[in-house]
Amino acid sequence: MTLVNKPARPAITTKDYELAAEFFNTCRRNGVQGSNTDFLICAVAHRRGYSIYTTDKDFENFRSYIPVVLY
Questions:
Q1: Which of 14, 24, 42, 43 is 20 to 30 A from 62 (CA-CA)?
Q2: Nearest to 59 by CA among 49, 47, 69
Q3: Residue 39: which of 56, 54, 53, 27 has the closest Cα?
Q4: 47-53: long-range contacts at Cβ-Cβ below 8 A with a sequence spacing of 24 or more?
Q5: CB-CB contact of 19 with 12 (8 Å)
Q6: Tens digit of pLDDT per residue, the chain (71 long)?
Q7: pTM, whole model, 2 decimals?
Q8: CA angle centred on 60, ends 51 and 39, rounded to 5°
Q9: Do residues 59 and 19 lie in contact, with contact meaning Cβ atoms separated by under 8 Å?
Q10: Which of 41, 40, 67, 35 lies closest to 54 in space, CA to CA?
């Protein structure tokens, strides 16, 4: 049996949580609601240059107000 090394997952930092809070506030101010987890996903993806692959339509609403890239 061969063990395959998995790529390291970057740790979620305080900056990620702070950016998620900013994203939450920006969207909320514009009448768009989302979960804390959704905004944390957006923050982590944005800070690391990742695209988000989802079928959740909420993320399309977020794109109008925060810089997220959907796959």
A1: 14
A2: 69
A3: 27
A4: 47/15, 47/16, 47/19, 48/10
A5: no
A6: 566 676 777 799 999 999 999 999 999 999 999 999 999 999 999 999 999 999 999 999 999 999 999 99
A7: 0.84
A8: 65
A9: no
A10: 41
Distance, in Å, from the CA atom of 26 to the CA atom of 10, rounded to the nearest integer, reads 25
Q: Where are the domains of the chain?
A: 14-62
Q: Give CA–CA dist 45/70, Å, rounded.
A: 10
Match 């987890």 to its residue by tokens. Answer: 37
